[in-house]
């Protein structure tokens, strides 16, 4: 019995010993093979893996003019383990901050996720070369202070701020994104415009330099003569489709006005100018002053950060009559000879849609020339209430389908962030508002003249001009013309063909040409160039109406399609048409003739901003 007890005790003790040994073995395996944290801490004591940031790609305009390039900048990095003997007051005086700011920043660093006292932490980003020169003279006095070289964007022109975009520190959401394998806290990336859309093309690839530390954490030079260093790869350069001289000219024409200009090459979809007004100098959002300047721009009541060409939505007004003229022909509601009468407007019972005085009746071409409201109300009613469709909602969906094919109601897919889709209602919207099958053409008659529920962006209206110029198709508008050692997206070279037969475009083109030779656009004509245009006035429930103009030139083999919107300025012929005419003449001829200098000066000097 005693022997059995002894044997059992011996087995238990032996088992416990084996278990302890197994635990130690498993722990050693975990520490040495599985868990990298201790190795990383040891490495951080012995090595500094210094990130080598790539130079960002350059940006040029369509003529090769350099728009955006790089200049050196310097981040102050701190290794808190080495800062015990730092003369804090001297350091603060040198870099131009207070002791309170220093203490606050150090607290933020220590609370940061992933903080280690042995690894460099970002303290002050983006010192200029001059600020760095002052600090460099005294670096030997500041233990634990290091410099990380970066680059900042520099601009050759004070123009095109929104389309170019800016660079800013990446957000926590970007760093924490599941697919992020590039950014760490403190990195910078494109925040808007081309800088954001083409971030992966422009940013390049990071490199790393491995530096050796001694037992006191001091840098002793490259590890193994740089054998394991990885050089950074610079970002690729971009060539934009814009003409910077035309862009600058457009911004000058739009100074002291709210609105936008969109100019497109119809044959390629390349955006020649994308003006948003009011605007700002892109250099304001560079370096250490970025935060302060950005706050000023955000609080500006004129909203210079609002990208009007891409995001603003307006009733397209009379410019939309050209789209309806195409749809009515396609559905055999009218032809070029169809005439409707106009008695100072369209009248149906108690309903009246007013119109200005002109000859009556008018055919299709004349209706565009004189922008007759009654003509399009009559055509719209003849289509939507037509018995060849099973019911009104079916007719309306056919109408909407054609309108969408002309580039309205959805995003066009331009390579600019924040593009708005505009708005074209469907039959279900009116079923919900008025009751199913309880509405008809007269209920929504304002759609016939580009008012009511319809909303379009300036980009979409300019694109309609391109569709008409091309007699039935467009190529998705885009800003990037070429990528170094790469190709632009295939969607920017493919034709998007509308549902309208090309033969129906000719009467519309003819009518738009007559607008310029004997209609509302007469004073915006261009000598020796056949221009096609359509004025518009978009009703604005919040103030004065908006002035619109859509145009393209030359009439045959067009080189430019354009939309100009001048907010709260009244008739399209007063402001938008002259500005569009000057833009087209500048682009097509390269100069403004003497006879238009007075008009040019009037546009330059006009102040149409709200007085309050």
Observed structural traits:
five-stranded antiparallel sheet, Beta-lactamase, 612 residues, alpha+beta, 35% helix, Penicillin-binding protein 2a (Domain 2), six-stranded mixed sheet, 2 domains, single chain
Q: What do you see in this structure?
A:
By secondary structure, the chain is α+β, with helices and mostly antiparallel strands. The protein has two domains: 47-238, Penicillin-binding protein 2a (Domain 2) (Alpha-Beta Complex), CATH 3.90.1310; 244-282 and 310-605, DD-peptidase/beta-lactamase superfamily (Beta-lactamase), CATH 3.40.710. It contains 21 helices and 20 strands. Helix 10 runs antiparallel to helix 20 and helix 13 (321-330) packs parallel to helix 15. The longest helix has 33 residues, at 2-34.
Characterize this entry briefly:
The protein folds into two domains: 47-238, Penicillin-binding protein 2a (Domain 2), CATH 3.90.1310; 244-282 and 310-605, DD-peptidase/beta-lactamase superfamily (Beta-lactamase, 3-Layer(aba) Sandwich), CATH 3.40.710.
């Amino acid at each position: 019995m005693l022997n059995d007890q002894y044997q059992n005790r011996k087995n238990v003790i032996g088992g416990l010993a084996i278990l302890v040994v197994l635990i130690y073995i498993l722990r050693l395996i975990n520490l040495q093979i599985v868990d990298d944290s201790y190795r990383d801490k040891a490495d951080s004591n012995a090595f500094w893996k210094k990130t080598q940031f790539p130079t960002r790609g350059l940006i040029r305009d369509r003529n090769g003019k350099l728009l955006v390039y790089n200049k050196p900048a310097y981040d102050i990095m701190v290794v808190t383990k080495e800062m015990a003997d730092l003369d804090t007051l001297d350091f603060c005086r040198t870099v131009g901050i207070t002791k309170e700011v220093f203490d606050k920043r150090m607290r933020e660093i220590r609370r940061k996720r992933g903080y280690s006292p042995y690894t460099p932490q970002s303290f002050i980003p983006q010192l200029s070369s001059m600020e760095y020169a002052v600090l460099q003279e005294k670096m030997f006095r500041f233990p634990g202070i290091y410099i990380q070289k970066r680059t900042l964007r520099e601009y050759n022109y004070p123009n095109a701020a929104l389309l170019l975009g800016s660079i800013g520190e990446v957000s926590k959401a970007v760093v924490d994104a599941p697919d992020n394998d590039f950014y760490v806290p403190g990195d910078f990336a494109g925040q808007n415009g081309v800088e954001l859309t083409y971030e992966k093309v422009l940013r390049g690839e990071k490199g790393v330099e491995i530096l050796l530390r001694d037992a006191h954490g001091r840098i002793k030079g490259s590890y193994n003569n740089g054998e394991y260093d990885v050089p950074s790869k610079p970002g690729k350069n971009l060539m934009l489709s814009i003409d910077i001289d035309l862009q600058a000219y457009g911004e000058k024409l739009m100074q002291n006005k709210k609105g936008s200009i969109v100019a497109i090459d119809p044959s390629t979809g390349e955006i020649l100018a994308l003006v948003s007004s009011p605007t700002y100098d892109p250099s304001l959002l560079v370096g250490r002053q970025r935060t302060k300047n950005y706050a000023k721009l955000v609080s500006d009541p004129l909203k210079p950060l609002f990208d009007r060409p891409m995001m603003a939505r307006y009733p397209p007004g009379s410019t939309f009559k050209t789209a309806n003229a195409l749809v009515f022909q396609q559905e055999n509601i009218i032809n070029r000879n169809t005439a409707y009468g106009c008695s100072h407007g369209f009248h149906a019972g108690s309903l009246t849609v007013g119109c200005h005085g002109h000859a009556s009746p008018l055919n299709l071409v004349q209706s565009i020339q004189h922008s007759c409201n009654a003509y399009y109300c009559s055509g719209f009613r003849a289509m939507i209430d037509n018995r060849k469709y099973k019911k009104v909602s079916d007719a309306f969906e056919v109408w909407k389908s054609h309108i969408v094919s002309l580039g309205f109601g959805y995003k066009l897919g331009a390579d600019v962030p924040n593009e708005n889709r505009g708005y074209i209602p469907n039959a279900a919207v009116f079923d919900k508002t008025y009751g199913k099958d309880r509405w008809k053409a007269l209920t929504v008659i304002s759609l016939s003249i580009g008012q009511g529920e319809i909303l379009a962006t300036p980009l979409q209206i300019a694109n309609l001009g391109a569709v008409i110029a091309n007699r039935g198709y467009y190529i998705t508008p885009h800003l990037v013309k070429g990528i170094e050692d790469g190709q632009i997206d295939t969607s920017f070279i493919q034709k998007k063909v509308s549902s309208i037969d090309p033969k129906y475009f000719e009467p519309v083109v003819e009518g738009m040409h007559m607008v310029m030779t004997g209609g509302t656009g007469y004073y915006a004509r261009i000598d020796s160039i056949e221009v096609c245009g359509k004025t518009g006035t978009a009703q604005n429930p919040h103030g004065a109406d908006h002035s619109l103009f859509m145009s393209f030139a030359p009439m045959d083999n067009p080189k430019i399609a354009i939309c100009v919107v001048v907010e709260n300025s009244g008739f399209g012929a007063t402001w938008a048409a002259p500005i569009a005419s000057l833009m087209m003449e500048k682009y097509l001829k390269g100069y403004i003739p003497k006879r238009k200098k007075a008009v040019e000066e009037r546009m330059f000097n006009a102040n149409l901003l709200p007085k309050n």
